[in-house]
Amino acid sequence: MARIQIITLITSLLFLAYIAWLIVKGRLREEYAIVWLICTVLLVVFSFWQDGLKKVTALFGVEVPANLIFTGCIFAIMVYLLHLSVVASKLQQQNKQLAQDIALLKQQIPNHDKHGAE
To answer: Which domain holds residue 34?
Structure first.
């Protein structure tokens, strides 16, 4: 086993343990951890399967394996950022609705006290 394989494997396993720790501590939700787990599993697979990256590269018609890795990473990051933008937009809408509901309730409370005191 080559030195780079050992380094990649150890780094991937440490990253996997860190993701598990974040999930256990409640700092990372499971739905967001799936992407990181898939990327880590891919790193472990390609660290064991040396010719795999060359075969996948030939399958896509790319000449240099590093170009395939960078293209794949950029695409994955763009998809993940789009997903986070959708989640942030949804949370912003829910926050706005919650603020409006609280404002209406606050407006009703003084009126309720006036009617209750009479």
So the answer is: 27-107
